[in-house]
């Protein structure tokens, strides 16, 4: 995969971050429902500016060149529709890399796609400034692999490409566990910061800190029942350590759910909270705090779907 061609479907913050990092040594096309400026600027965590010219295309007018890999960087709720729009244009065997939060569309797309499917779990932080500028808010780490443990060589090659582009990445054979771990962190952090309109680090302060613990306790109970362990330690203490480490490391970040709320977009609540509540139901566990947040976000989604009143 020397000088690879990458299609990046979903030119939001994460998609543009990946594109602009890859563009120095790879052929990159940003694909969305509408076109964006071909000259894009990435503001780095070191306060420098990285300016790149990238190809752009609409998903209804795909390029003729066949990609070596397709990165699907849409929100979770848009991933399957985006895949349907492009799948017929891809030769069988084209690798697909899924970058969605939560654990919802990944199994379905892994079964449906006509080629290798890898999933990514990343802590890279980014947010959009405007149509031509995105901020890389904080360095993170990415894990990637397939849900069934196959395609290790492909995962290793893509991890090397991403790492060389400045996005440290590791190929793993337990990506399902890592997706659940990230879901756990997101389920604690995202609903709170979205509800209160705060950055991640403000969860360390009163009165928000006390609201973290009830969510932590519910998430820990559910994932223990599912057989998912935190990376360091066991049970509630292990999950508490992981969540607070992420809060510290991403203190300046505006979480993706907060960005979506502020922009008037649909959030990824179904991909992040619904799988946990489904698991809670299977294990007959109460999760009232998670359920309350999901109900609130579903009500907001219903309101967004309603047509505006006539004057």
TrEMBL record:
<feature type="domain" description="Ketopantoate reductase C-terminal">
    <location>
        <begin position="174"/>
        <end position="299"/>
    </location>
</feature>
<dbReference type="Pfam" id="PF02558">
    <property type="entry name" value="ApbA"/>
</dbReference>
<protein>
    <recommendedName>
        <fullName>2-dehydropantoate 2-reductase</fullName>
        <ecNumber>1.1.1.169</ecNumber>
    </recommendedName>
</protein>
<dbReference type="GO" id="GO:0050661">
    <property type="term" value="F:NADP binding"/>
</dbReference>
<dbReference type="GO" id="GO:0008677">
    <property type="term" value="F:2-dehydropantoate 2-reductase activity"/>
</dbReference>
<dbReference type="GO" id="GO:0015940">
    <property type="term" value="P:pantothenate biosynthetic process"/>
</dbReference>
<comment type="pathway">
    <text>Cofactor biosynthesis; (R)-pantothenate biosynthesis; (R)-pantoate from 3-methyl-2-oxobutanoate: step 2/2.</text>
</comment>
<comment type="function">
    <text>Catalyzes the NADPH-dependent reduction of ketopantoate into pantoic acid.</text>
</comment>
<dbReference type="InterPro" id="IPR013332">
    <property type="entry name" value="KPR_N"/>
</dbReference>
<dbReference type="InterPro" id="IPR036291">
    <property type="entry name" value="NAD(P)-bd_dom_sf"/>
</dbReference>
<dbReference type="InterPro" id="IPR050838">
    <property type="entry name" value="Ketopantoate_reductase"/>
</dbReference>
<feature type="domain" description="Ketopantoate reductase N-terminal">
    <location>
        <begin position="8"/>
        <end position="148"/>
    </location>
</feature>
<dbReference type="Pfam" id="PF08546">
    <property type="entry name" value="ApbA_C"/>
</dbReference>
<dbReference type="InterPro" id="IPR013328">
    <property type="entry name" value="6PGD_dom2"/>
</dbReference>
<comment type="similarity">
    <text>Belongs to the ketopantoate reductase family.</text>
</comment>
<keyword id="KW-0521">NADP</keyword>
<dbReference type="InterPro" id="IPR013752">
    <property type="entry name" value="KPA_reductase"/>
</dbReference>
<keyword id="KW-0560">Oxidoreductase</keyword>
<dbReference type="InterPro" id="IPR008927">
    <property type="entry name" value="6-PGluconate_DH-like_C_sf"/>
</dbReference>
<dbReference type="InterPro" id="IPR003710">
    <property type="entry name" value="ApbA"/>
</dbReference>
<dbReference type="GO" id="GO:0005737">
    <property type="term" value="C:cytoplasm"/>
</dbReference>
<keyword id="KW-0566">Pantothenate biosynthesis</keyword>
């Amino acid at each position: 995969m020397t000088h690879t061609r990458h299609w990046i479907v979903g030119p939001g913050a994460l998609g543009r971050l990946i594109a602009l990092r890859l563009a120095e040594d790879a052929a990159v096309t940003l694909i969305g429902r509408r076109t964006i400026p071909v000259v894009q600027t990435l503001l780095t965590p070191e306060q420098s500016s990285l300016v790149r010219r990238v190809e752009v295309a609409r998903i209804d007018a795909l390029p003729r060149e066949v990609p070596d890999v397709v990165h699907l960087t849409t929100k979770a709720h848009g991933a399957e529709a985006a895949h349907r729009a492009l799948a017929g244009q891809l030769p069988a065997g084209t690798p697909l890399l899924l970058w969605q939060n939560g654990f919802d569309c990944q199994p379905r797309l892994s079964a449906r796609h006509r080629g290798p499917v890898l999933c990514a779990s990343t802590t890279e932080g980014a947010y959009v400034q405007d149509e031509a500028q995105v901020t890389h808010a904080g360095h993170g780490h990415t894990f990637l692999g397939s849900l069934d443990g196959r395609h290790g060589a492909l995962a290793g090659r893509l991890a090397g490409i991403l790492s060389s582009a400045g996005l440290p990445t590791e190929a793993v054979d337990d990506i399902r566990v890592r997706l659940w771990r990230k879901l756990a962190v997101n389920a604690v952090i995202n609903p709170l910061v979205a509800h209160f309109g705060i950055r991640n680090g403000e969860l360390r302060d009163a009165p928000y800190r006390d609201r973290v613990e009830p969510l932590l306790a519910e998430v820990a109970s559910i994932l223990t029942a599912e057989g998912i362990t935190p990376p360091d330690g066991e049970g509630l203490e292990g999950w508490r350590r992981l969540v607070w480490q992420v809060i510290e490391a991403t203190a300046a970040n505006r979480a993706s759910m907060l960005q979506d709320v502020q922009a008037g977009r649909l959030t990824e609540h179904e991909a992040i909270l619904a799988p946990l509540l489904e698991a809670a139901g299977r294990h007959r566990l109460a999760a009232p705090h998670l359920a309350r947040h999901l109900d609130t976000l579903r009500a907001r989604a219903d309101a967004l779907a309603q047509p505006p009143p006539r004057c």
